[in-house]
């Protein structure tokens, strides 16, 4: 695999997992308030 492809894969994974972690944290915060 080329370096550029590897970097793009890592960037995509960070965006996907970062968004997933943010949504989970938001859901936990909402459930604790109610």
Automatic annotation (TrEMBL):
Domain of life assignment: Bacteria
Membrane as UniProt keyword: yes
Membrane spanning residue stretches: 6-28
Cross-referenced InterPro entries: MaAIMP_sms
Annotated keywords: Membrane, Transmembrane, Transmembrane helix
Protein name listed in UniProt: Methionine/alanine importer small subunit
